[in-house]
Amino acid sequence: MPGKSSSWAAKVGAMLAKDIRQEYRTRYAAGAILLFGVTTVTVVSFTMGRLDLPVEAQAAVLWIIIFFAAMSGLAQSFIREEETKTAVALRLYADPNPVYVGKLIYNILILALLVAVITPLYIIMTDMIVSGIGLFCLILFLGIIGLAGATTLIAAIISKANIRGALFAVLSFPLLLPLLIGAIGGTAKTLSENEDYWAAASSEIQLLISYAVVVITAGILLFEFVWEE
Amino acid sequence: MTSNYTVMTVTLLVWLVIFIYLIRLEGKVKKLEEEK
Amino acid sequence: MIWNVILFVLMGWVIVMAFITPAPQQVIGEASRIFYFHVPQAWVAVVGFVVSMVASINYLRRGRLTDDDRARVAAELGFVFCLLATVSGSIFAKVTWNSYWNWDPRETSILFLLLIYGAYFALRSALTGDEKRARLAAVYSIFAFITVPFLVFVVPRVLPSLHPSDSVVDSAGQFSMSGTTAMIFFPALVAFSLLFFRLYILGVRISILKRRRIEESQL
């Protein structure tokens, strides 16, 4: 890690680079998430593909898959730190703030990878018609930022627990409900034939943006309480 | 109308029981606090 | 002592009046009396969450374990009332719209609160060490609280497209209550709040005693 005198951005970058390098070597978290995502999309489209589901259902299934894939892998970066005891060294040499932001960006990148892989897959396999591609992508983008924002702090919390099990999902789900409802609603609007989807989805977009801002800000403020020993 | 009265009486009795339990509990707590 | 008397009399009066006076909502009839109990329970469920969150903030600021006790007791009470509110609401829904669960805004919000409470206790039970548990539970409590306003604003916007709004609760919520109804409802609100705080104070005192006992046995 860079010394105390280096910039905040450099510290964030170092944290991020370390995580990416580690991930690249083992490919554990990304692997788990992608595997889960691809498997689920395949199974789901196999059963659902031929049914003519309403757009809300199509949108909901996509986000459910994203949510569960996130649950299967996003806590990794913190859990690994605790288990390999590298967390101790990290606490000594780094400020909590760059650690949090670094982990947050890392989680966003992993989710972006997930979405980039499974969304086209999902669209093709279920023969989904996306009327508003721009809005569709925007909602995915805002959604994963909010998702990462909420789950990064929770991942830090549960990494300190002894018995984890489904704790990550149990803690994350209630907090993510508003995000999921907004993302699903917004996505559904981009799938319908209605021309005016940008206006129709404006409240969802506002929700997603404000959710992400609030959640990330709170995460930054609260993280040091989780991180300190 | 009478069913209303039955439910009301039952509810009142339940409340009485809960309340008496509360008072007893508070008595115990007071006693323990005074010991210290 | 006087508060005990007030609480007893007030709650007793509310119970009696709730059943003697004409039913608040004529269309549903007798079952609408649940309203006098259901809404105060939901109110207390929210109050419990707020009290718990404030105690959590205090813990993070001051580091005293009594604040963690306060957070836990408030959460336990809030959870119980939340459970009661969900069940009584479900009964209310069955009687009014003939289905136990409808995903309308208020039902979803109370379920959401229930999930948060559940998650809070799941987290507490998965952590060992008083300070660690207190600290992490406090962080989660605060973090969860900030997502609540979103649900309050999101849900009414999305769900109406799927389901008709609950006219009964809306009309009551907008205080188009008759005089008799209001005369019983507001005291009920006070009575339940008093009950919560009575139980809360008692619970905190018990926790303090327990903690003192532990400290003394370690000397």
Q: Can you put this structure into words, describing what you see?
A:
- With 229 residues, chain A is mainly α.
- Helices cover 81% and strands 0% of the residues of chain A.
- The mean pLDDT of chain A is 86.
- Chain B is an all-alpha fold and 36 residues long.
- Chain B starts with a helix and ends with a helix.
- The mean pLDDT of chain B is 85.
- By secondary structure, chain C is mostly helical.
- Chain C has one domain (35-157, 180-217).
- Chain C is built from seven helices and no strands.
- The radius of gyration of chain C is 19 Å and the shape is globular.
- Chain A binds chain C through residues 56, 150, 153-154, 157-158, 160-165, 167, 170-171, 173-175, 177-179, 181-182, 185, 203, 207, 210-211, 214-215, 218-219, 222, 225-226, and chain C through 60, 112, 115-116, 118-119, 122-123, 126-128, 132, 135-136, 138-140, 142-144, 146-147, 150-151, 153-155, 157-158, 162.
Write down the secondary-structure element order of chain B: H
What are the low-pLDDT stretches of chain C, counting only 5+ consecutive residues below 50?
161-165, 167-175
Our count of helices of chain B gives 1
Note the overall shape of chain C: globular
Strand content of chain C: under 5%
Total separate domains of chain C? 1
Percent of residues in helices of chain B comes to: over 70%
**Which sheet architecture does the biggest sheet of chain C show?**
none
Secondary structure class of chain C reads mainly alpha
Q: Give helix and strand order of chain C, one letter per element, not per position.
A: HHHHHHH
Distance between the termini of chain C: 35 Å
Biggest interface between protein chains, with counts per chain?
A-C, 35 and 30 residues
Tell me the Rg of chain B in angstroms: 16 Å
- Total DSSP helices of chain C: 7
Tell me the Rg of chain C in angstroms: 19 Å
Our estimate of the beta-strand percent of chain B is under 5%
Mean pLDDT of chain B: 85
Structural class of chain B: mainly alpha
Average pLDDT metric of chain C: 83
What low-confidence regions of chain B span 5 or more consecutive residues with pLDDT below 50?
A: none
Helical residue percent of chain C? over 70%
